[in-house]
Specification:
Layout lengths: L21 E2 L2 E5 L15 H25 L7 H16 L6 H15 L6 H18 L12 H6 L2
Antiparallel strand pairs: 1-2
Helix pairs in contact: 3-4
Length: 158
């Protein structure tokens, strides 16, 4: 059986302060869990990442809540809310669009085949070309069903 590195070993992480999970000089940004490097380094094992997420996720959540209580609430622009709602609901209107599952699968294949552990200039250029095509296809996504518990719609929003 061949044994080799997998994508699991490509974990990087955002450097952050351990006390409140602030990211470098950005006092308004927080990181915890798989997004952050830190206590266990960039190559965390599964068991370590859970404890990291629990401890630093709580710290980040508390720091975020404290920060939110200090920031004045900006005025609400109902026009922007309506625009965001239309954008979120657009996949229900595209009756002849493409499935978000198909685009997601093609994105995974592109990243696995062209942007894996071993990279070269030609593959990265091809990956950028494929990503542009996927971006265009994603603009025509179509989902079925209702807004309740609709994983296809959720996938269309990512």
């Amino acid at each position: 059986m061949e044994v080799g590195p997998t994508c699991h070993y490509m974990m990087g992480g955002i450097s952050r302060r351990c006390g409140n999970c602030e990211i470098g000089p950005c006092r308004d940004s927080l990181a915890a869990g798989e997004a952050a490097a830190g206590l266990h380094g960039a190559n965390r094992l599964g068991g370590n990442s859970l404890s990291d997420l629990l401890v630093f996720g709580r710290r980040a959540g508390l720091a975020a809540a404290e920060h939110a209580n200090k920031v004045p609430t900006p005025p609400i622009d109902s026009g922007r809310i309506d625009e965001a709602a239309r954008e979120m609901l657009a996949p229900f209107e595209h009756k002849d669009g493409e499935s978000p599952y198909t685009i997601h699968r093609d994105l995974q294949e592109t990243m696995q085949n062209l942007v894996g552990i071993f990279r070269n200039k030609e593959d990265l250029i091809r990956a950028l070309e494929e990503l542009e095509k996927l971006k265009e296809r994603a603009g025509r996504l179509s989902v079925e069903g209702s807004r309740l518990f609709n994983p296809g719609w959720h996938l269309a929003q990512t």
